[in-house]
Design a protein that fits this description.
This protein is of the alpha/beta class. The strands form 3 sheets. It has a 6-stranded mixed beta sheet with strand order 6-8-9-10-7-11, covered by helices on one side. It starts with a helix and ends with a helix.
Length: about 675
């Protein structure tokens, strides 16, 4: 049928061409009335003529000779005895021939075709309309609205070797593979394999990939569908699709039935202002019934994935339906290294690239984020006409994934550049001098995204539990930029808005969630942080107005103490603050190694290291200050409490005039 449809446009073109030829042929025939024909008949030499005699007229067609050649003609003559005798005499004169046709034979076919062709055209039009309504496929699909939308993959290529960073999760689902391969040993033992497995985790952690790997390892069909594919405008459609999906799965057992984003259809019933959603709740009810109706060890395993388990209906998560919960968390440093190795298989990396080091610099990245980092680095290498992915490409790719592309065309004024340099240097100094603070990996004042500068800081080691001292150190580090502006310029800017947002959230959680204040181990907020409007919108506060006042006081006390500690550290290490700020002003970007050398030696490079064979990475001379020989910035020769930094050779630091100009500029902007 589809092959015939491909020739349909060609058929229409042929019909149009035939019509044009027919009309052009008719255009060469001379049509005349009865009076004109009488004048021509007196002197014309007729050759061949045909008569079609009906009740009242005689249709005459034929050819006669003229000075210019033969001419076809057509006319209509009244049907009388005199006209018939006259036509016979004139047309047979000079050897002409006459043919008499039966007009009823031609009229019959013409009348039939004239009635059928419009009907055929209308039928073709309706056929195409039904095809478009059903998504461009067969017209029968228009009547398959309630059929399942699940997509089936019979030969899944994904294996466990393609899924890295979740070894414990693999062990949880390995029994499913053994069951699908050899179910008899489980039935002989009297064991019942879980009917459903619920995978929970943040986006991008590989829940779908892990489910597909289970089907690939077991070599069974993989049915996949999204929760949103069930819900339609018409009530009952989703329930019908659920029934059809399980019916199809039973015909293909053993198989894996994967439902992605199940929270779209499995939300808690009866929630919401004004009642629930009838279509969604009926779909959920049908899903619960189908899972209850599944017999034990029938060869179908339902795997569902979501990143919002808090909104799921309790009946969906009870034993007998989704018996097992598998939490797919963000990978640790070892898992990130394994994920990078998987995605680096088809990438050409330059010699010396350490995936372990790259994994240490990307805490909190999901598997999808890491794959994106390597893909962005490969794109950058192609853009730079390189044959291999370099370390610079990887560094830029991390920055692009976290903050967006660099806005190199955006230029600072001299005053703003000094302000951003000291702001980022303040973060760096706190990271270097505070024991529990994060390690500074990279500092740049090149605008990226909405941020005027960028400070990449990673924890010294990844932990599952954070101590109070570590949270206080994090708040202190976030205050480093704003406090540096206070010390150097005596004024603050709006550049710390993101830092303030983060530290306020940490301080509130310390008081309201973790019990790290004088209010004691009492929780005053939901640790999940996710609000389900249907359930939590009308929920009242868990504490009184007096307790809310105490919470505000505790939050303020935590932030104030961290601010005082931050100010003390920056004042004691003012020389190091000036040194890093001057080099940031000059070079715009500093790495962890360069910052460490600045702290230990006062220069961007280690003076004791062997000289490189090629030119140094920074063509300009590094800005240096006269630090003491022991390399401790706290023991510098000049006073750390001095507000004016020593003037380096080039570029000169901010003089008092520069500071005054910056203050005036900030005042004007306000």
């Amino acid at each position: 049928m589809k092959k015939w449809l491909n020739y349909l446009p060609t058929l229409f073109v042929i019909i149009i061409l035939i019509s044009l030829v027919t009309f052009s042929t008719r255009g060469s025939v001379s049509r005349m009335n009865y009076t004109e024909f009488q004048k021509i008949a007196q002197k014309a030499d007729f050759q061949e003529s045909s008569l079609s005699i009906s009740g009242s007229i005689i249709k005459v067609e034929g050819v006669y000779k003229t000075d210019k050649g033969s001419q076809s003609f057509s006319t209509i003559v009244p049907n009388t005895d005199e006209n018939m005798a006259w036509l016979t005499e004139e047309l047979e004169r000079d050897g002409g021939t006459i043919t008499v046709n039966d007009p009823s034979s031609n009229n019959l076919w013409i009348s039939i075709l004239s009635q059928l062709i419009p009907l055929l055209l209308i039928g073709v039009l309706f056929y195409f309309m039904l095809s478009k309504m059903s998504g461009g496929g067969s017209a029968n699909k228009a009547f398959e609205f309630s059929k399942s939308r699940a997509r089936i993959e019979s030969d899944v290529k994904v294996r466990f070797s393609d899924v890295a960073g979740c070894e414990e999760e693999k062990e949880e689902v390995r029994e499913i593979i053994d069951y699908l391969k050899s179910p008899k040993k489980f039935t002989d033992m009297g064991a019942h394999i879980p009917k459903g497995i619920l995978m929970v985790g943040p986006p991008g952690t590989g829940k779908t990939l892990l489910a597909k790997a289970v089907a690939g390892e077991a070599n069974v069909p993989f049915f996949s569908i999204s929760g949103s594919d069930f819900v339609e405008m018409f009530v009952g459609t989703g329930a019908s699709r659920v029934r059809d999906m399980f019916k199809t799965a039973q015909k293909n057992a053993p198989c894996i039935l994967f439902i992605d984003e199940i929270d779209a259809v499995g939300r808690q019933r009866g929630a919401g202002m004004g009642g629930g959603n009838d279509e969604r709740e009926q779909t959920l009810n049908q899903l619960l019934v189908e899972m209850d109706g599944m017999s034990d060890n029938n060869g179908i395993v339902v795997i569902a994935a979501t990143n919002r388990p808090d909104v799921l209906d309790p009946a969906l998560r009870r034993s007998g339906r989704f018996d097992r919960n598998v939490t797919v968390s963000l990978p640790d440093v070892k898992g990130r290294e394994e994920i990078l190795q998987v995605h680096a298989r088809n990438k050409t990396l330059a010699p010396g690239i350490s995936l372990r080091s790259l994994a240490q610099r990307t805490p909190g990245f999901s598997g999808a984020d890491l794959a994106n980092v390597l893909n962005e680095s490969a794109i950058l290498a192609v853009r730079n006409h390189e044959t291999k992915i370099t370390q610079d490409d990887l560094d830029e790719a991390i920055d692009r994934v976290m903050m967006g592309p660099a806005k190199k065309s955006k230029k600072y004024t001299d005053k703003d550049k000094w302000l951003v340099s000291y702001h980022e240097a303040g973060h760096a100094v706190i990271g270097l001098k505070l024991e529990d603070a994060d390690i500074v990996q990279k500092v740049t004042i090149i605008p990226r995204g909405d941020a005027g500068g960028y400070n990449l800081m990673t924890p010294r080691e990844e932990k599952y539990f954070h101590r109070k001292s570590e949270m206080l150190a994090t708040i202190t580090g976030l205050l480093g930029g704003r406090t540096a502006e206070e010390i150097v310029f005596g004024e603050i800017s709006a550049g710390a808005v993101n830092d303030i947002e983060k530290l306020t959230s940490i301080a509130k959680n310390m008081v309201r969630v973790y019990g790290m204040s004088s209010l004691g181990p009492i929780q005053y907020a939901d640790p999940e942080g996710n609000v389900f409007l249907g359930r939590d919108y009308t929920k009242g506060s868990d504490y009184s107005a007096g307790v809310a006042t105490e919470i505000d006081k505790e939050v303020r006390a935590i932030v104030d103490s961290c601010h005082d500690e931050c100010k003390r550290i920056l004042n004691e290490n003012r020389d190091l603050l000036d040194l890093i700020a001057h080099n940031l002003y000059e070079h715009e970007t500093l790495t962890n190694e360069e910052i460490t050398c600045l702290m230990n030696f006062g220069t961007l490079t280690d003076p004791n290291a062997p000289a490189p064979a090629e030119e140094p990475a920074h063509p300009a001379e590094p800005v240096s200050l006269d630090l003491s020989k022991n390399g401790d910035a706290d023991q510098a020769d000049h006073s750390a409490s001095s507000a004016t930094p020593p003037v380096p050779p080039k570029p000169a630091g901010p003089s008092q005039t520069d500071v005054d100009d910056a203050l005036n500029e900030l005042t004007r902007r306000k």
